[in-house]
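Materials and Methods. Structural model of DNA mismatch repair protein MutL. The 619-residue sequence of DNA mismatch repair protein MutL from Mucilaginibacter gossypiicola was retrieved and submitted for structure prediction as follows.
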Amino acid sequence: MSDIIQLLPDAVANQIAAGEVVQRPASAVKELVENAIDAGADKIQLIIKDAGKSLIQVIDNGCGMSLTDARMCFERHATSKIRKADDLFAIRTMGFRGEAMASIAAIAQVELKTRRHEDELGSCITIEGSEVISQEPCAANTGTSISVKNLFYNTPARRNFLKSNPVEMRHIIDEFQRVALANPQIFFTLHHDSQEVYHLPGTTLKQRIVHLFGNNYNQRLVPVEEETTIIKLRGFVGKPEFARKTRGEQFFFVNNRFIRDSYLNHAVTTAFEELLPDDCFPFYVLFIDIDPSKIDINVHPTKTEIKYQDEKAIYAIIRSSVKRSLGRYNITPSLDFDQENSIEHLITPKPFEEIIAPTISFNPDFNPFANKEERPKQEHPFLRDSGGYKKDPIPQNWDTLYEISKKETLFQHEIHEEKTIAVDEQDVSKPSERQLFQIHNRFILSPIKSGFMLISQQAAHERILYERFLLQLQNHSGVSQQSLFPQSVTLNGSDFELLRELLPDIRALGFDIREFGKNTVVVEGIPAELNNVGEHELLEHLLEGFKNNLAILKLDKRDNLARSLARNGAIKTGTKLSVEEMNQLIDQLFACQSPNQALNGKPVISTFTMNELMERFEK
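The predicted structure was written out as tokens:
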């Protein structure tokens, strides 16, 4: 029997390795940009076409590579950072200038142009599927330019599993934001399909956060800084009132490397105890500087997970530092007695000042019912020359002023009396005969023949709006309420790309939105059903709810949009309703296809029969 175990060809081995390192275009972007940073570049350009499927190009002004290094960087296990095994535990840089290049070259068409400062000519290398097509001298700028074209062109199965362009572009923006936050001193630009998405000059960390996420973040940040013998902590956390319902804007960096760590994330959220609801997550950008020998960064192929020698101490330091920063900048509630006394001192008048009480003068002989001749003249400054008051005649036929209003009220009652409602095959009273009560501005109590029913007003309105929005998405029949003053809304890059993806369906719901410059839209109208909500708040909550539902429920796009908009636009618990509003809510609820099922799957209506009440009181 012949031998069956054979060595894999290098091209196949590289394709297998690429599956661990390059999962999507965003993975290639991360590796290439980190290589540019380690090359000492202070200016990095990222050019994307077709969400990275057609082109990913990174241009830097770093140190460049020699002819030999340019060829060697595409070999497996080629690196400029490691010479022995102990070097693995002393790494402070990002890329290895070759660790991922072999994987990328195995699944794409790569063109590399590079030149060192001391060289007159650069090198140009073209590789397709791990095979070197050409290598020749060329004229090139100082630094390196790498173009990755047609990613996964030779592995169509993996290319078919890529998501739509907006989804892949959001992943690229996420990776770009992480690298840009870790290196605020470097100038970054990002272009997608010939449009500039980001233009980030070298600056401080706070300004880099503002440039990435919007000018409104300038007032949301609380600085955190702590230095101990174990770690050095620095960065910013967001104020509690600006917390979101998704985890998107939470960044941990260990030695300038982005990581995901649920344990350390719990330390930050614990510091916000009693300041945030359970379903909200704070914004934070925190940097941990630690001795590389006390961590292991080679736990995960993408280096996003780290092991620590003393996790509990790091947890305690982060938690106490964030909590102290929140208290130091008066975010947590506090009572300053000195401040209270100073305020009281400002209000209390000085003892030597004489207080003059106001005086009121009036004419005791004035009679408003007297005739003009009998009425004494007043000394009012505005009526001094008028010769007194003129007696207004009593209007005639005043008792007929409300006839029109009475007729409209009777007409509305006649319309309502034509409708009937059924609950569990039991007749409910007509609207004109209903005795409705609102309990704690939360539930609506309505008597029925067999007892009474309790309706959750918020869940009921969510169900009504949800089915209405679903129908509008199917028929593109949303009605827009135009704004008197259109509002401009600036979003971060990821949310803006998500909005562009959802724009046709959002317009079908009744939004009148158009793009207006970089990461900015103008809202000229919102759905008519939601005219009591601000444009900026409504749009942000819609995107937040969509991302939250997408991460938890895995809903399709239209169902997700309808559900998110219904929850944001529904009347909230604690809203006082009039009898007419309660009647209208009940009528619309029982016109729904599923009136007794809330969006979270719980019941909207609870029915209590007379037998249940009698049994309870008899016992």
